[in-house]
Specification:
405 residues; Heat Shock Protein 90; 9% strand; rod-shaped; Sig_transdc_His_kin_sub3_dim/P; phosphoprotein; transferase; ATP-binding; two-component regulatory system
């Protein structure tokens, strides 16, 4: 037999460490442990003193036997100090000792209670069966003159069953408390994780919104500022028009930024407080791009753009906005075509295409995350998006989004 095969024979430091009562893993007792252990020793000593008084009252008992019984009972009570560390061994020792020493009965009951509290059912059943098996031996070897053998045996059996049942009830209650605490701790952890995930998703959503809104405005600023830098001899009218576009774009960028920052400062995350473009405002986006000097052709085949779902229309707007921004960065001066088609039950198809640039230009820096964000946005909306070079040159962004009938 090895210790790994019977782990319940190990000290309590290595068995059931999750229970509040199993404190063998700690080298120092708490104040509660001291109180409980001293109380258990005093209870066992009280039972032992009553037994000694009964033995001493019997005139046929020699005085030397009373002294020996008292000493053995004191040793048994003091041995209860180790009931937390070796409950199984102590209970077995007390069971054997109680067969010939009635003064050790109190220590036996406390030891059996400790086993029931600190060990699972199998070792408790084995130790309890052993204690019940030897219960008739002590009344037989040292009978009580005032009590019959049968009555003494029945009382001993009932006391053993009582302390074992009481100990198992205490253990079950402690296990229930540990389980409830673990569930509460797990629930708090899961709630914190859900809150953290929701906060992270909200931040990602706001960051995506800021990219979609501000990239378009800031690209206009960069393009026109670059034109003024490289053409200082431009006519005054053209310089004034470019300066007006820069001023308007900066104003719109600040306004959009103010609205998004307002969402961050708001105590509630209301979708209606954010900028909400729709398909109906797509024409205004095209007009703004044309005013900035872009060549944009809008081919809108939707009969009633305002009837499209708000979320779908907003996604179409963002795709067109990002496509125009990328075309302005990477193909300035090229004609961009924005095509929108579909209807209820068919879905909405949006495509933004531009030919390859024909003249050298200064590259406008970008984050490189716009198309990735568009793909994610389209996927979350239940659609799909692909992008890449066109067969005849240039670049294209194509997306399909659902439109329920």
């Amino acid at each position: 037999m090895t210790r790994t095969e019977y782990p319940w024979l190990l000290p309590s430091a290595m068995a059931d460490p999750e229970l509040p009562g199993d404190r063998g893993a700690r080298s120092r007792r708490t104040v509660r442990d001291w109180i409980v252990d001293i109380t258990a020793i005093l209870c066992a000593a009280g039972i032992g003193l009553l037994t000694v008084a009964t033995i001493e009252a019997d005139p046929s008992t020699p005085e030397g036997i009373v002294l020996i019984d008292s000493l053995i009972g004191a040793v048994a009570c003091c041995a209860l100090w180790f009931r937390r560390r070796w409950p199984i061994g102590l209970a077995v020792a007390m069971t054997v000792l109680s067969t010939v020493e009635p003064v050790a009965a109190g220590a036996l009951l406390v030891a059996l209670f400790s086993v029931a509290v600190h060990r699972p059912f199998r070792p408790v059943a084995l130790v309890g069966a052993g204690a019940l098996a030897v219960a008739p031996i002590q009344p037989y070897l040292r009978p009580d003159p005032d009590t019959s053998f049968l009555a003494s045996t029945i009382v001993g059996v009932l006391l053993i069953l009582l302390v074992l049942s009481w100990g198992m009830v205490v253990r079950s209650r402690r296990q229930l408390v540990v389980t409830l605490r673990e569930r509460a701790r797990r629930a708090e952890t899961e709630a914190a994780l859900r809150a953290e995930q929701a906060q992270r998703l909200a931040r990602e959503d706001i960051a995506r919104e800021m990219h979609d809104v501000l990239a378009h405005r800031l690209t206009l600023l960069s393009v026109h500022a670059g034109a003024l830098e490289f053409r200082p001899d431009a006519p005054p009218a053209e310089v004034a028009r470019a300066a007006g576009v820069i001023r308007d774009s900066a104003h719109e960028a600040l306004q959009d930024l103010r609205e998004i920052i307002g969402v961050l400062r708001s105590p509630r995350d209301s979708e209606g407080d954010r900028p909400q473009p729709t398909l109906a405002t797509l024409a205004a986006l095209i007009a703004e791009s044309r005013l900035a000097g872009m060549k944009v052709v809008l081919d809108n085949h939707l009969a009633d753009p305002a009837a499209a779902p708000a979320a779908t229309g907003r996604t179409v707007y963002r795709i067109a906005q990002e496509g125009l921004t990328n075309a302005r960065k990477h193909a300035p001066g090229a004609e961009v075509t924005v095509t929108v088609s579909g209807g209820p039950g068919q879905g909405i198809t949006v495509a933004v295409r531009n030919p390859a640039p024909t003249e050298p230009f200064e590259q406008v820096p970008g984050s490189g995350q716009g198309l990735i964000g568009l793909t994610e946005r389209a996927t979350l909306a239940g659609g799909r998006l692909d992008h890449g070079p066109e067969p005849g040159g240039g670049f294209g962004v194509r997306a399909w989004l659902p439109w329920p009938s």
